[in-house]
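pasting for the record
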Amino acid sequence: MDTQQITAPPCAPTPASGGSTPSSGVIHINVRHVAGFTVIGNHLSRHRGLSLAAIGLAVHIQSLPAGARIGIKVLAGRFPDSETRIAAALRELEATGYLHRSRVRLPNGRIATRTVSYNQPGADASTAAAHAPRTRPSHPAPLPAPPATPVPAPTPAPQRTPAPVPVPQAVPTMAAPEPAQLPAPVLVPAPTARRAPPPPLPQPQAPTPELHRTAAALLADLRRYAPQLALSESDIDALAPGVTAWLERAAHPDTIRHALTADLPVPLKHPARLLRHRITALLPPPLPGAQDLAPARRSVIVIPLQNCDRCDRAFRAREPGHCRDCRTDLTRAA
């Protein structure tokens, strides 16, 4: 009867986090990382003003080594997100201070984008260097050797010292002067060529109210075929003369609409500038008239009539003289 009978089941294991298991919500199973991890502050992971895409992008950028490329096209090729979404996330990080992008000129004259990532917004380089973790040496420093106990040397027998031989003294040499430090070269930015002004918008030869009204209606109707071409009234009034010039040259409205809406860039930042360029650069020539399409008529050269100096017979020649028969008789007589 002294054997203990165990009838109760064993207790459940203690949660990995050390606290009591909550009745609802997330439960953490944490494993301590010893390599290949990145420290992220809760001010970033719980930021209420950033989207989840921006928070995930900031975590990815902070995990990359220094010098890694984080351009929009590079990130779009690495993740399934589009370039538009990645660009919007980068702008969010710049607005909140987690990212800073600037354009600098390289020594070879090219322009490059320099990106600086901050794991704490508002921190400068000196603060980051002061809080940087100190690395321990891989090998401990060797301990100093204990001082050696001096051993008394035996007393030598007295000997006759020879006369000292005079040693010529070395002539002191003057130290070579240090080369003067030249000032660092100043990088002067290469002069940029001035951009030529855009060509003027084409104007109609004989504008009429009907053509102007049709051109304005065609411009206002473009947003039905391309929503990004929603123009304001001022843009329509400014571009209407150019479309009127197209209509004046007998261009069909469908032809004009196709020329202005085909192959639009993505994203389209300035729709009015794009339409102005296409209206000016793609302007068709005027239709040729009927006389321009008529075939060229061959010119007929008429040789005048001449009277023979011998027989007074009429013959065609450019200059007066003898007819063919008289020239043959004269040749035989000769």
